[in-house]
# Entry
Amino acid sequence: MPRFLHTADWQIGRQYGRFAPEDATVLAEARFAVVERIAALAARERVDAVLVAGDVFDAQAVSDRTIRRLFNALRGYEGPWILIPGNHDAALAESVWTRAQRLGAVPSHAHLLLEPGVYTFPDLGFAVLAAPLTQRQTHDDLTAWFDTAETDEGLARIGLAHGSVQGILAEEIDSPNPIAADRAARARLDYLALGDWHGFKQVDERTVYSGTPEPERFRDNGSGQVVRVDLPGPGRVPTVEPLAIGQYRWLAWDEALSVASDLDLLAERLDGLPSGIVLDLTLSGAIDLAGERRLDQALSVVQGRCRSLQVHRTDLRLEPTDEDMSALRADGYVGEVLAQLRQRQDAAADDADTAREALAILAGLLSHDAGEAP
# Structure
């Protein structure tokens, strides 16, 4: 009764250019750390193997140090790691995989399936039908040969591939690396372990995307997991269980502020966030000066708990009330500037964002001065 972990899309070496350097470095390190946790889980669960369905590396040009660090992370589980290339790390004539081999970085228990074929593991009770990508994109179904492939009697048949199951995933993310939706049935597979879709998705009782084990997108699709699979025997339905393994949760919030209670609710939600969150917050609507100060305070507090906080205020207008303006004691030239900034932030101008920031800064300075006046 073979038991194994199925994982994919590690994207080792991924860069996070949209984040501040401090956050980008930590998020990149998390991708190594999750592999170490997978190794610890595999050892704890005493699985027979770990199957990795492609995109182990994010690019061919990762550094030699990155290659060595990745394979060192496998040492926490001494059983077989069975890996295939995906579209990001395709098995080209010269690739990240051939470089790893030249470096002598690949441990003996890591099996790199760089060519299509049947790889037999008789002591473990299964055979792997591997469909590695040998180029980044193909319009042919590289799993088609599974249908006629022969395996030794008594061994479970496990397919290992990287691509897009046709007609199942959203049309806009179907890749040029197609896989027939009924491949598992046609090829008499006991299990088809897939990579490419970054969230967990069970296509049918034998066909599964594990998703990436460490989230890296603002999409609620079941990422951050590995899949534990128990095969009762050839021809029998496997038991599939996704297990949480990721470190950081990625959240995207769109918040519209129009009345004071909206800000109250947002502040309450922010206050309830646990640590280790990557939050992308988009704000819209309007806010007065008092609300702006409350918002800044709430964001300052939560920023200390979040792994990363990105706030977009392009569509959030700063609308000082008449009471705000009166309290600022802005008259003469300064009053005219404030009025112009208020107009420009509401206009569809290229500098509307700049006008809003300038208005907030000027209003803040005036508010500070007004507070100190006798």
In short: The radius of gyration is 27 Å. The first helix runs from residue 21 to 45. The chain has nine helices and 17 strands. Confidence is low (pLDDT under 50) at residues 370-374.
